[in-house]
Design brief:
- By secondary structure, the chain is an alpha+beta fold.
- The chain has seven helices and ten strands.
- A six-stranded mixed β-sheet has the order 1-10-9-4-5-6. A two-stranded antiparallel sheet has the order 2-3.
- It is globular.
Length: 241
């Protein structure tokens, strides 16, 4: 059944499309401005030491750069006692594979970091068929210091800090999503350059960008209500939502 939507002549459509194009160009210019201001943000020296568990053994934060000067860490929601990773984080991580060779050849390494033990991370990664680097921050304060992991005591309080603001602890979970970027200079000093959280992560999801251009858009009732882990979708695609 066709949605109840305006149907017009080609000439009327072209007029409306050109009007939207003007707004899209404004959005592109604004994105360029945001990217320039993001690049110009001041940096913070990382003086605290973190040790992560990896498939190659324990590694410090500087060692995670793997010979590159730029590191991007996706804070993946997978807790110590979780049976599987967050569906939304999994949806986002499905987009990493195509990025990796381009990032690696542009002096950037992309990894995920979770508070789960490495064995649990590896079991879930194999289930999903992923190959991006994924390290365990279990036992260190990395994800807590970047305000994406919370203790039971913190969640029992009134507020926690997430996305640079205080939010009601009832709206938080023990793990939340985020992304942080770091730079390492020639003497090995690491700097925190950027972090983003919540809907600031949407631009990493190419599926969203394509759906936004499809006739029905994201076709969701609440944010991401249609998302499942990629091995949990029904065999046949749904005909309506």
């Amino acid at each position: 059944m066709r949605p109840d939507h305006a149907v017009v002549s080609r000439e009327e459509w072209l007029k409306a499309r050109k009007s939207l194009l003007s707004l899209e160009k404004e959005h592109t210019r604004l994105r360029d401005r945001i990217n320039a201001e993001r690049k110009a943000l001041p940096w913070v020296r990382m003086d605290k030491s973190y040790v992560f568990e990896t498939l190659a053994g324990p590694k410090t934060l500087p060692e995670l750069f793997d010979g590159r000067s730029q590191l991007v860490v996706y804070h993946f929601m997978l807790g110590e006692n979780w049976e599987a990773g967050c569906p939304s984080c999994s949806f986002l991580a499905d987009h990493f594979a195509g990025m990796l060779p381009h990032l690696n050849h542009h002096d950037v390494i992309l990894i995920a970091a979770s508070n789960a033990p490495l064995a649990k991370i590896e079991a879930y990664r194999k289930r999903m068929g992923w190959h991006f680097p994924w390290v365990s921050a279990w036992g260190n304060d990395f994800n807590r210091d970047f305000h994406v992991s919370f203790t039971p005591a913190e969640l029992a309080g009134d507020k926690v800090i997430y996305n640079f603001s205080e939010i009601d602890s009832g709206d938080a979970y023990e793990e939340l999503p985020g992304l942080s970027a770091f730079y390492k200079d020639e003497d090995g000093t690491v700097y925190h350059t950027y972090s983003t959280y919540a809907r600031g992560l949407e631009e990493l999801v190419g599926t969203f960008m394509l759906l936004d251009r499809a006739p029905k858009g994201r076709n969701e009732g609440t944010i991401m209500d249609f998302v499942r882990r990629h091995d949990e979708y029904e065999e046949a695609p749904r005909q309506s939502a």
